[in-house]
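URGENT: need a sanity check before tomorrow's submission.

F., can you look over the DNA mismatch repair proteins mutS family domain-containing protein record below? I want to be sure the sequence and structure line up before it goes out.
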Amino acid sequence: MHRSLRISSALLPRRQQFGSLNFALSARRAASDDSRNSNSPELEPYVPYHILKPDVVSDYMPNLSAHLASQLSNCPLGYATTMVGPKTLVKYVQNEKVNLSVKDRMPPLLLVKVGEFYESFGFDAGILIAHGGLNSMGGKLRAGMPLANIQSVVDRLFQSWPGKGADSLEIAVYEEFGFNVTGTGLKNRKLQQILRKGEEEYFFNLHMGEGSSTMNEGVRVILVRERLTKSQKSYDLYEIEPYISRCSISSSLPLSSLLSLIDSGSVYKDTVYFSGGDLPSWAGDLEVERVSGGEQVMIENLGVKLFGEKWMGVKVSEKCTETSMKPLNFETAKEIGVVRDHRIASLVAAVIGDEKGYAADYVRDMLLRHKGVEVGAGVRNIVKWLTNTKESLPERKIIDVKRVIRWIREGECSRRGFIELRESVERAGVWEEFCIREGVACDLGKVVEYDTAGEGGRVKNFSTIRQRVLQLIENTVAADEDAIVEAIEDDVKGKGKMEQTEIKVNNFFVRNDRTWQGRVKEDATDGVKQAVKRVEHCKERLVESLKRDFYHDEGAEVVVDIFNNALYLRCEPADRKGEYMHPKDRNNRLLRNRYTTEDVNEKLRDYIGATQECKAEVAGALKSLSVDIGRLEDGLDAILECGYINMIIEVCIRHVAEVRKKGWTIPDVEESMSHAVSLNDVFPYWMGPSSRVTNDVKLNGMCALTAPNMSGKSTVMRSVAAAALLASAGMYAPVGSGSRVGVLDAIFVRGASGDAPNEGKSAFGAEIEDIGDMFGTCSDRSLVFVDELGRGTSPTDGASIAAAVLEEMAKRGINGFFATHLFEIFRLIPKFPPEVRERIINKRMAVDYVDVGGERVVEWTYKLEDGVCKDSMALVTARKFGLPEEVLDRAREFQGLVEGRKEMEEEEEREENWGVAVEREIGDIPNLDLGAACNILEAVSNASAITLPAKFTPPPYLEGRSCVYVLEVPETSAEGGSMYYVGESDGVGKRLKAHRSKRMRGLSWSNCKGKIVEVEEGKGQARRMESEVIKRMEAMGFGMISVADKSHTNFGGGGRDGDEVGDRVAGQARNGENTAS
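Structure tokens as predicted:
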């Protein structure tokens, strides 16, 4: 069934045609809705984003309605298909939109460079107008911005995005270079970057295409060497990353593991380089080029061939060590949610709360490619320390460090890139010292070394080199306080002519100075210093000419022409007829409705030329900085390590914060265990505390598992596999305390999947191929899960093959589950050798029968028990999923199976009632500072507060727990001082991050510090305490940023969440509203 989207509020006639448009997503819930909303535009199921109704739009922009289509399936931009020409820019954008669309996810918004502007079309433009603060271009559904404004628009979009939250928003930015699209006359364009929450910084002018080095064409070069041993093929994977001088080798991979590593990694060149027998068919659409020679020769020859003089060699590291598990194959990764599959819950999201972004990619790679026992132990120790610490933690800075290193190598890193790098390097140093103090520096070092080091280990003198990098950046790059001056608001209504003119001219200078200002220090180089002086000199001369020729008449109207970057008069002054001339535009056409003088024209050219020269000098200074850092011995290696220190710590903190509220624990990993796994109270990683059912699982052999349909056997297997994988990686797992896992060499999961027609395989062929991979990969230290083998062929053949596979697995000492509905297998097991039979135990999923109205109904328990189930209860499932009753009746005649099923009900969680009286009272408070505020907080809560310094984050154990906090926010005025904010949250870490990202005039939220107390009685009591603290602080005379929550005294289960109030206050701050009391 399609979903219908429609506007839930009308357009309001304010400022911009779409400027105050509020969109809402409305999903169709029942078939009856289809008839009631037959006029709503139908959408493809994978396009859940906001649409503009033609009849609503036409009320305010009549010429737009013809441009909107009623079916997004015709055009993802919303244009009528007949209006999109085959060789037009809009057609190109439409095709790129389709290419970037992924099922069940919102497609990215597209920003495409068109000359000096970045533009969007159709529905994307409507969203930029509605939520990005842009105006419509020419009354059409088209919007754009110059390069200088792109970041502010992007930031505004992420702050105001209304859909499923900013996490649902992605913005794809395209750069342009040259006219070389054959037969179209269009410029060649290429995707530069996809911006998303947490990665919203845009690094412009760094497109990957002609005019740039070949090193920018891809982030990895893939080299595959084929091996043939005992008539079975395996592969060595070489991932060459030339810009960071690394080559990672994963040896002896089966084909499925090879493909999962290639597909899940970062962008790579479209050509796969191959050494071996026949060219592989698995490469699909990728181009395959043959190479030859030994390992070192192949790598060196390939590097010189692809990168020429830029090739600097690589450090080689083997990723598949003796103590590491073999990389997951694609089927296993899919079945337990490591790679994306819309049918299966994401394990990555369960681990850190998100499946997108740099941190998610790092976790995905960590789970796909096990890092070994020592690295796993290092991660485990860091996670345990983060769980137990009560201290506030330094902030982290996550950047795409490999991309930044590439830009430095190319001499193309921008100011924003260096600012991001500086923060990453600074915070890595803080964390290095912090971990030394806390006794986990060695554990962190093990993980960093695996991720970054080649031959020779980690960087020597890491601290010294790090300080040298920071000093180089400090000497050149402008600090935040030296950044560009903001333009004055263009709203000149109600102001006099001269005041209007001054505002317009000021903004003209600001827009031009933005091309160079605030990027490097004005004394960074002699060239920059001289260029800045020339700009100021030319500006002064231009101002003098403007005063003489444009300002002398108070009635004269000055026009700022953004497209021609010029200043004109709208009318020739009456008292100086004949002294003025018509200027020419950038295409040398005469502008007959504009006027200027020779003097102003000449001074204007000088000023524009000076700004361009200054821009070039600034770019040269940044390029020189890239060269200096690139030449620093081990400088780029130290930067790489800094990036990974931040990433590792960030992932561990997010992990602890996410799983603490889920009741997960950290299993021990023991090499000398008698069982492969011994898990207490294991449960599905995607289920919350109120709905999950736990099981105890001990595996020392093969478990033959039988169960009715839908009774949870596949869920149990996925749960055990995921728990073992997470435990081996050193992470929390969905298990109870006392759980243990042995040292495993492989985890293999083969679910009941379908055919693969594009590979020429039937369902049976595909599953047998995977089983072949399993036998070639797994040993007596492996954990294997096979679900419904043999279902793709006849029951007799399927049971025979399944029994033979189960026997061989037990014979080889493999541990795991073998789930089946082929009950004939149990007549064959007695024929197994006695020593093999001893390694097989029978388990089944238990069911209960309850009496409902005199009828005996099946109830699933989702619990494991000993025994064999020989009744699949297929008709119960068939009825549940809509098989017609007459068909079911006939089936009962044929098979006599049971019917009915009662679904398990979810338990409802209730908030605890207010039950703690505030006992401790406050004495006299002499000074209104954070210490005095802490006294109030501790008196109200009757608990000791945790100190939160500036640039520190709360300990992760607080995530998921109710907390009340007080923040001291410094004022930016010359007099200094502070304002105070009181809040409560069950996610205090995320709430603090939101606070520190606020922009409110006169306050420095990014440098706020505070005090936090945990409220064990729950959210209701926390909100009462918040209200009481606000009242007392206000009564004492504290300067409060907001007192909106002081009236919160009665909260039930349906009360408004306190975080919503925080969101409203944050929204007021973003909109420039004064929330100070």
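My own read: The CA atoms of residues 2 and 45 lie 6 Å apart. The two ends are 51 Å apart (CA to CA). If you see anything odd, call me.
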